[in-house]
Design brief:
heterotrimer; A mainly alpha (259); B alpha/beta (284); C mainly alpha (257); A: 259 residues; C: 257 residues
């Protein structure tokens, strides 16, 4: 048992390290214009992002991402509640919502460019709108699946409408809301990159695409690397937040599975 | 004791409980809970399904009344009407002469399905606090109510745990504690001990009797277990099925205090349960 | 029943209301000519639908999306079975998979365009990259979720490893794979469009880019409407297919984490 665990640990950490080492050495003297040496890529990574373009581009991108996502999250949950709790609202906007979410989110970016221009406003708006739908739809589903028993308890104990919404429906729907938020975050990340790639000169996405168009492969790789790391880290941060907010849910699920 | 304005609550003095209880029962002219010709039909037209047809019974203050009947007879529907969760199709249910049209403030309900009636995201104590928040109690009283309710069900040690970390019987005790902390005058329980093991069931039954004694509550228990009904109740309302109607109200004359071993071995206990059983078993 | 208004009537009111607001906003000329009138857009849409160029673009988009989806599905399930069945492989790949999972294909779009150019191959590559990982990971989960009792039973009946894989493990992983496909199918369409829009790959995405660059806003809106309808059709089709394939499975899963 113990040997197996050690073996798994060795494999689990060894293989990724091995892959990186292999990349380093195999690319070491590469003259291929598409695949520059890893050393060059890392060097460019450090020159570009630490910290020459950190404030002007990295922080700008991340700021747009979080602002857009935050707007989408708040609006998605709020409108999800309105839609789930007021049937006429639901009947009125349901078909529209389903049509709009069928549109690939990135395809909305050209429309916003034509309406608002290339600025930060356009990027935040695109991110917020595209990221809005997954959260809203998940919120509606979450509220609809809250058990009637729980609502009966709330009514018998005469909780006020505000208490029923904030202290019963919201926490009960939270696991599904978080599933929606996770998708929204991914969409926000994609649209952040897309909105920068489509005709902007600032931001990580813009710099990466620009590097590709000027055949500066190492710069492009550095951009890809940074975007990959950001995608990974943002996801981890979200996981930590989820673990904190939904600790009751995760704990109860784990217990139920163990039983 | 309570800043809640309902005047009846001030009678909730534990010290006077023992003295008042027999008196209230004898002198009761208007019953605490009065169900008169209550009927409930779901749907309409050709699809109409009558679940309850013309139920009439009363529960006096301080009484424990059990409602028994075959499963699927519409007991839960009856409770939902009493708790104001569903309107009756015709007839009335009234507390102290006031018709119930929404959840009454002096009533608490313990649901059958404990694992779906507790909030899984709240600790045990916070589950107790949730229904009390809108009463705007002073912090000290809030704490005292929760402490004494948890102590009454023997769960003082578990107040920081989540319901899903507890056993079924403990979860049901949390649900009962939540009702106790709410200090209702009328406690209604829907098959409260149906999904716990036999030993826990006995403990919870005795807890129910202790609550009546300590808090002077009027208690209505729905059950399909005839022994349980006879053991707990001052009176047993026997329902016949489809649609539900009252077959008979059986007065249970067993000496107090009741005890799981001695009471259940009385010949009188056996006679009473046979009475009720034969009513239910009789072909409709 | 006091409600006399039928839900569908309200839905119609909602859609009509949105169209009217659109028409009014464009008439108010708030955004210059960037917001064409709804009537103009639908007229443009009708004329676009009559052109051969549109249908060949649509064909290119659907062709790339579906072919790449099929390749990703086959490769993803095969890889998933491999990773899920052998513990060492699972540990060896865990770190890489976990790192790549939250990285969307748009991140490597510049690389794909650099190497493959603005071609259908580039779009194809991106779609496979984007759809492969979710399918692999769900299949791994499915293999892990296969009832060990069923496995042992099969073994005690003398089934070989290959037979167990095909008869026990794969069927029990099907609901997971179905879930993955339901997510992957619309994603395939989205990535194809993104590859056209940002990378110049052939298809509707490229058309949208051209419409925007040329200031042909009526066509831009018309194409986005087409994509919306297409997205709905993709979702409906995968739902239907999943129900068809998995109707036998009682625990037909929902995507809830």
């Amino acid at each position: 048992m113990r040997n197996l665990a050690i073996r798994n640990l060795v494999i689990g950490t060894g293989i990724p390290v091995l892959l990186l080492v292999a990349w380093w050495f195999l690319s070491a003297n590469s003259a291929d214009p598409f695949f520059p040496p890893l050393e060059t890529i890392l060097l460019r990574f450090q020159e570009l992002w630490l910290f020459d373009h950190f404030q002007s581009d990295v922080l700008l991108s991340l700021g747009n991402l979080f602002l857009g996502f935050a707007i989408a999250a708040v609006a998605g949950v709020a409108l999800g509640f309105a839609t789930a709790l007021v049937p006429p609202v639901r009947w009125m906007i349901d078909p529209l919502i389903h049509f709009l979410r069928g549109i690939p989110p990135v395809a909305l970016v050209p429309i916003f460019i034509s309406l608002i221009g290339f600025g930060t406003q356009m990027r935040v708006t695109s991110i917020a709108l595209a990221a809005f739908f997954p959260t809203m739809i998940a919120t509606v589903d979450g509220i609809r699946s809250v058990s009637n028993d729980l609502m009966d308890v709330a009514r018998v104990y005469r909780l006020s409408r505000k208490e029923r919404v904030l202290n019963v429906l919201l926490p009960a729907a939270m696991p599904q809301i978080f599933s929606g938020l996770q998708v929204s975050l991914q969409v926000a990340f994609i649209v952040m990159i897309a909105s920068e790639m489509l005709g902007s000169s600032q931001g990580i996405g813009a710099m990466t695409l620009l590097a590709q168009q000027s055949f500066m492969a190492a710069d492009m790789w550095a951009g890809i690397l940074l975007l990959g790391v950001i995608g990974f880290l943002v996801n981890i941060l979200f996981g930590l937040l989820r673990g904190k907010v939904l600790s009751w849910y995760i704990g109860s699920r784990r217990l139920a599975r163990a039983a | 004791m309570s800043i809640r304005q309902a005047p009846a609550l001030t009678t909730h003095n534990r010290k006077s409980t023992m003295a008042q209880q027999p008196e209230t029962r004898v002198s009761a002219t208007t019953p605490r809970l009065h169900v008169a010709h209550l009927a409930k039909t779901y749907g309409s037209g050709g699809k109409a399904r009558t679940v309850i047809e013309d139920l009439t019974f009363t529960v006096d203050a301080g009484e424990v009344v059990c409602i028994v009947g075959p499963s699927g007879v519409g007991k839960t529907t009856l409770l939902k009407c009493l708790a104001g969760l569903q309107p009756a199709s015709s007839g009335t249910a009234a507390i102290d002469g006031r018709t119930i049209s929404g959840p009454p403030p002096e009533m608490a309900l313990v649901f059958q399905d404990y694992n779906r009636s507790l909030m899984p995201w709240l600790t045990v104590r916070k589950n107790l606090v949730l229904p009390l928040r809108h009463l705007k109690l002073p912090a000290a009283e809030l704490k005292e109510r929760c402490d004494s309710a948890l102590a009454a069900v023997g769960l003082s040690h578990a107040d920081n745990q989540y319901p899903w970390q507890l056993s079924g019987g403990m979860q049901q005790r949390v649900a009962i504690a939540r009702a106790l902390a709410y200090r209702p005058e009328i406690l209604i329980m829907d098959e409260p001990f149906a999904s716990v093991d036999a030993q826990t069931r006995f403990d919870l039954e005795d807890l129910c009797l202790k609550i009546r004694k300590d808090f002077n509550m009027t208690i209505l228990v729905v059950t399909h277990d005839i022994d349980e009904a006879v053991y707990l109740a001052d009176r047993v309302v026997v329902l016949g099925s489809r649609p539900a109607r009252v077959l008979r109200v059986v007065e249970v004359d067993l000496p107090a205090p009741r005890d799981q071993i001695t009471t259940r071995s009385l010949p009188e206990f056996a006679r009473q349960r046979t009475d009720v059983l034969s009513l239910i078993k009789r072909p409709a | 029943m006091k409600v006399s208004i039928h839900p569908y009537a309200l839905s119609a009111v909602g859609i009509a209301g949105a169209l009217v607001i659109w028409q009014i906003l464009s008439a108010a000329n708030l955004a210059g000519n960037a917001l064409p009138a709804a009537t103009t857009v639908f007229a443009t849409l009708a004329s676009i639908l009559g052109t051969g160029a549109f249908w060949s673009s649509l064909g290119a988009t659907l062709g790339v999306a579906l072919l790449a989806l099929a390749v990703a599905a086959v490769a993803g399930v095969a890889l998933g079975l491999l990773v899920g069945s052998f513990e060492p492989v699972r540990y060896a790949t865990a770190a890489v998979l976990e790192f790549l999972k939250p990285v969307p294909p748009i991140v490597i779009l510049p690389l794909a365009v650099l190497v493959l150019g603005p071609t259908a191959e580039m779009s194809f590559f991106l779609v496979v990259f984007g759809c492969l990982l979710p399918i692999v990971m769900q299949t791994v989960d499915g293999v892990q979720g296969a009832d060990p009792v069923a496995r042992d039973t099969a073994r005690s009946y003398g089934m070989g490893e290959g037979e167990i894989l095909a008869r026990v493990v794969l069927p029990s992983a099907m609901p997971y794979i179905g879930t993955a496909m339901r997510v992957a199918a619309p994603a395939a369409l989205v990535v194809t469009v993104v590859a056209g829009l940002l990378g110049g790959g052939p298809g509707l995405g490229q058309n949208i880019y051209q419409a925007q660059a040329a200031g042909d806003y009526a066509s831009l809106y018309a194409l986005v409407i087409v994509l919306g309808v297409l997205g709905l059709l993709f979702q409906a089709a995968t739902r239907l297919a999943e129900r068809r394939v998995l109707h036998w499975h009682e625990s037909y899963r929902e995507v809830v984490h």
